[in-house]
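Tip: read the tokens left to right.
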């Protein structure tokens, strides 16, 4: 089932999310719904707060990035085959020289800006079977993880912009929060009531 993606301005996007346990209600259905929702919106990542749930979980599939011919064959291969579920994750280390990349977000349609992040991370997380892993990621995979991780920390990529950039996009953000935007996927705007 495709869920509506929560738009900029909804308080759930600014809340620090809570850990979940293995017996989380209808977990398997939620997981499938999150992947369906992400693919329907042509995203590479989706965090639970973006579907209105303040829980520490996100899904990633970096396959769309694998078609970038400026990347090496190895990088393209890694991106093509990276589909992952992160539950209760904790980034324990960020390393390297910060680099800029033009980021966007399904909750903030039609806004893209350069965001600086470190290129290498170490993260501990549970997979969809609630088995623990500690892994090191770098490059675009690390970037997507950091972006989605920020969501469960109540941080949006727009929070990382300079005050000048924030002023320049203020009108766009205001329009998004009021639902004055056209998107080709389901969204829920702060002014709208929740529908079940």
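Filled-in amino acids:
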């Amino acid at each position: 089932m495709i869920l509506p993606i929560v738009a900029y301005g909804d308080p759930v996007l600014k809340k620090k999310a809570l850990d979940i346990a293995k017996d989380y209600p209808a977990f398997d259905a939620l997981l499938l719904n999150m992947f369906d929702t992400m693919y329907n919106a042509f995203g590479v990542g989706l965090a639970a707060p973006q579907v209105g749930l303040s829980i520490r979980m996100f899904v990633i599939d970096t396959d769309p990035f694998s078609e970038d011919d400026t990347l090496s064959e190895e990088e393209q291969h890694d991106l093509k085959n990276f589909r992952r579920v992160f539950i209760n994750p904790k980034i324990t280390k960020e390393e390297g020289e910060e680099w800029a990349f033009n980021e966007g977000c399904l909750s903030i349609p039609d806004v893209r800006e350069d965001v600086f992040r470190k290129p290498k991370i170490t993260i501990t997380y549970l997979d969809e079977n609630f088995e623990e892993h500690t892994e090191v990621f770098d490059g675009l995979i690390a970037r997507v993880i950091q972006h989605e991780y920020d969501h469960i920390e109540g941080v949006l990529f727009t929070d990382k912009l300079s005050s000048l950039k924030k002023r320049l996009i203020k009108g766009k953000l205001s329009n998004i929060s009021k639902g004055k935007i056209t998107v080709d996927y389901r969204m829920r705007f702060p002014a709208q009531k929740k529908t079940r």
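Residues 163-177 form the longest helix (15 residues). The mean pLDDT is 94.
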